[in-house]
Design brief:
Elements (H helix, E strand, L loop, with lengths): L1 H39 L20 H10 L1 H32 L5 H10 L5 H13 L21 H5 L6 H12 L4 H8 L4 H9 L4 H16 L3 H6 L8 H9 L6 H33 L4
Helix pairs in contact: 1-13, 2-13, 3-7, 3-10, 3-12, 7-10, 7-13, 8-9, 10-13, 12-13
Pfam family, one: BPD_transp_1
Family: Belongs to the binding-protein-dependent transport system permease family.
Membrane topology: Multi-pass membrane protein
Length: 294
């Protein structure tokens, strides 16, 4: 009996220590976000004169100032259009390509898949110049002729912003891993019922791919919404600026208003947080089911 009590006491002590450590880590992670939210609702004149986490006189003026000074309205519209189109194309292409690599036999399938996968190892910085030239010399766009000469191509356009986001290699990899883990007997049963490959994919496997779609959608959304380097390269005016560029321009304007800057940061961070919160169950399920199979 004493040995059992001693073991239970040690176990309880270990659980309490883990809880304290996790609580401290959580606090360290959340504090910058909580302070950012606090400053967003704090009047500008009291931004650094008070150490209160909850403002004494909260205000919404900083959010209005953020929209006016940083031109967030146009930037939000541009980012939303580019991000939603990129999410749609990635979901469609990744699911179709992943299913084909996992369940269809065709010449060179493995070679093509591993060739695609090898592109993940290429640093983003290495691809910037080729992507820039591709956007600038895009045929029949921005005054260019059929050979991509004479104009600006897709530079400073939403099409140019979209160019590198349309298809994600990692999304295809995750999709292939996910479909590889699904039972092939489902396809055989469909073939016995006279179903073709398209019907098998649409009626049997696609409904099972909801967790996968959540993973691809979240990865694509966060990757496009948070990207800064490519918009910086291709955008030259406010008509194609994104939220990340808008915040950077506002922060480097010289006369920094920290309340408005934090308000803009809160607004820009909100869509990513909402997308993850509403899809976290499918996201975790898709990663656990597809990420370790194949």
């Amino acid at each position: 009996m004493p040995a059992t009590i001693s073991h239970s006491a040690r176990t309880g002590t270990q659980h309490r220590r883990r809880f304290v450590v996790l609580a401290l880590v959580t606090l360290l992670v959340l504090m910058p976000f909580l302070w950012m939210i606090s400053l967003a609702f704090t009047p500008e004149e009291a931004a650094f004169s008070s150490t209160r986490l909850i403002p004494a006189n909260p205000t919404l003026d900083n959010f209005g100032e953020a929209f006016r000074a940083a031109n967030l309205g146009r930037a939000f519209a541009n980012s939303a259009i580019v991000t939603l189109i990129a999410v749609a194309t990635n979901c469609v292409v990744a699911v179709i390509a992943g299913y084909a690599f996992a369940h269809l036999e065709f010449p060179g399938s493995k070679a093509i898949f591993y060739l695609l996968l090898s592109t993940v190892a290429i640093p983003t910085a290495v691809t910037l110049i080729p992507l820039f030239l591709m956007a600038k010399q895009f045929p029949l766009a921005g005054g260019n002729n059929l050979f991509g000469q004479g104009g600006s191509g897709l530079l400073d356009t939403l099409g140019g912003l979209l160019l590198p986001y349309l298809v994600g290699t990692m999304n295809i990899f995750l999709s292939r891993q996910y479909f590889s883990g699904l039972d092939r007997d489902l396809a055989e049963a469909g073939r016995l019922d006279g179903a073709g490959e398209l019907r098998i994919f649409v009626s049997i496997y696609l409904p099972l791919a909801r967790p996968l779609l959540a993973v691809v959608a979240i990865f694509s959304f966060t990757g496009v919404w948070d990207d800064f380097i490519w918009p910086l390269v291709v955008s030259t005016s406010e008509r194609s600026t994104t939220v990340q560029l808008a915040i950077t321009t506002f922060a480097s304007s010289g006369n920094i208003r920290y309340g408005a800057l934090m308000a803009a940061t809160v607004l820009v961070s909100l869509p990513v947080l909402l997308v993850f919160l509403f899809n976290q169950r499918g996201f975790i399920s898709g990663l656990s089911e597809g990420g370790v199979k194949g």
